[in-house]
Design goal:
Strand content: 5-15%
Helix content: 40-55%
Number of strands: 3
Strand order of the largest sheet: 2-1-3
Shape: globular
Number of helices: 5
Order of helices and strands: HEEHHEHH
C-alpha cells in the first residue's frame, strides 16, 4: 500500500471450524449427537489411535486437550473422548464458503483485490 492509505487487518479465528463443520454436517444427515456439546476432536485415526488433534470441541478444552497433541495424549486426558477422522472435502467446502462470504465485506473496506489479500 502506498502513502497515506490506512491498513485494515482482519483476524478471523477458525480454530474449531473442522469440528463445527463436522457437527453440523452430521446433524443435517440425521445424527442426533452434536459433537460440539461433548468432549470430541477431529484428527487422526480412531481405530489405530494414531495422529494428532486437528480441532476440538469446547467440552474437550475443559480436559486441557490441545490442538496438535497426539491422540494418545488426548485420550489419556479424556478416556471417553469421541474421535472423528477428518473429512477434508467437507472442510474445503466450508473454507471456500467462508472466503466467498468474506470477499464482499473485505472489498467494501479495501481497494486491494481480495485475491491479493490472500497472497
Amino acid at each position: 500500500m502506498m502513502g497515506n492509505s490506512k491498513r485494515v487487518i482482519f483476524h478471523i479465528d477458525v480454530n474449531s471450524a473442522y469440528l463445527s463443520w463436522e457437527a453440523v454436517y452430521r446433524l443435517q444427515q440425521g445424527d442426533t449427537l452434536d459433537l460440539r456439546n461433548i468432549p470430541s476432536i477431529v484428527g487422526g485415526d480412531p481405530k489405530t489411535r494414531h495422529g494428532i488433534v486437528l480441532a476440538k470441541s469446547i467440552p474437550a478444552k475443559k480436559y486441557n486437550i490441545k490442538t496438535g497433541e497426539t491422540l494418545s495424549d488426548a485420550l489419556n486426558k479424556c478416556p471417553n473422548l469421541t474421535i472423528i477422522s477428518p473429512s477434508y472435502g467437507l472442510y474445503m467446502k466450508g473454507s471456500n464458503a467462508g472466503f466467498g462470504f468474506l470477499s464482499f465485506p473485505v472489498m467494501s473496506f479495501s481497494s486491494v483485490p481480495f485475491s491479493m489479500i490472500l497472497d
